[in-house]
Amino acid sequence: MSRNLLSLSASAVLMGGTALADVPGVAVDIAPIHSLVARVMEGVGTPDLIVQPGASPHEYSLRPSEAASLQKADVVFWMGDVLTPWMEDAVQTLAEGAAVTTLLDAEGTVLLDFREGTLFEAHEREEHAEGEVPDDHGHDEHDEHDPHAWLSPENAGSWLNLIAAQLSAADPENAGTYFANASAAREEMQALSAEIRATLDPVREGSFIVFHDAYQYFETAFDFPASGAISLSDATDPSPARIAEIRERIREEGIDCVLAEPQFNAGIVDAVLDGTGASTGVIDPLGAELEPGPDLYPQLLKKMATTLAECL
Fold first, then answer.
1. Helix (H) or strand (E) holding 255
2. Residues 6 or more apart from 134 whose CB is under 8 A from it?
3. Which terms does the UniProt entry file under GO BP (predicted)?
4. Signed CA dihedral, 261, 262, 263, 268: sign only
5. Is-contact 132 225, C-beta < 8 A?
6. 118 part of a folded domain
7. Over the stretch 177-207, which tens digit does the pLDDT of each residue have?
8. Do 219 and 101 have their domain in common?
9. What's the confidence (pLDDT) of residue 230?
């Protein structure tokens, strides 16, 4: 190879490296939100995921590589301290100077109140079936609200625009790509919702209980309310009395399905199921077994719907 060609090749590598370096560093808390950000960034760059697959976001210890991701971040997207209370200090300390977007506080985010107790009464389930939304954004005390808002495709669609806007502010040269990706992703979200409804329609007469109360956004979006949860929304272990109460509800109401989660103690579900005859499946609000990236979010919701339908 000639010296001139070598020089040109070296220049191309340097230019490519410079272009890559100009893409903002982006850190995201959980895999479903990381997926939305990755979809908006397709063709430009790749965001860093903080909470690794299989871990609970409620309690987490940062690895050095994840702390480094926050330190180099120009933009941070996270749900908020209701879901990841440990992350607030990490963001303030490590991502000082980054543009931080708290999605639970974002304009247009639809929030649902925590449900009382673990056995949802019939009137609560009827409100969900009728599509009532207890609350939307516009409060200061979001500790009262369920943080699992990413399981609403409506919220996800709203956040796509916000993600594109925040990335564009940090990287104006790629604004066109960010907004084009966000627009395409919103259309994909509509098709995804239609597909999920078609999956659930044949089993709507069934009834189910989930491991912890993390799914009411999904339930509301697709008019398919759960009968209860083994654990509260913060995923604390249930007491023996609560397990007995839920087991009795399953027997009395003929609940068809009890859904476990990969992050939590399977023995608790076994105790609830004992002597009931209900089926079981594994459902996951975070996509623990899915490959992180732009395809995770639609795969997550489709897998939830398929698992529920098969269990019923």
1. none
2. 112, 113, 127
3. zinc ion transport
4. positive
5. no
6. no
7. 999 999 999 999 999 999 999 999 999 999 9
8. no
9. 86
For residue 144, what are its two tokens?
A: 């009262």
Q: What is the pLDDT of residue 232?
A: 66
CA distance 108 to 159: 9
77 three-class SS: strand
pLDDT of residue 231: 78
- CATH assignment at residue 31: 3.40.50.1980
CA distance 23 to 163: 15
Residues contacting residue 152 through CB under 8 Å, at least 6 positions apart: 110, 217, 218, 220, 221
Structure tokens at 67: 């702390």
Give the distance between the most distant pair of CA atoms in the chain: 83
The single-letter code of the amino acid at 175 is A
Domain contains 128: no
pLDDT of residue 234: 57
- List the structure tokens of 306: 């398929």
**DSSP for residue 235:** -
Low-confidence ranges of the chain (pLDDT < 50): 1-21, 123-142
Q: Is 129 exposed, middle or buried (0-12, 13-18, 19+ CB in 10 A)?
A: middle
The pLDDT assigned to 267 comes to 85
Q: Residues 231, 211: contact at Cβ < 8 Å? A: yes
DSSP state of 98: S
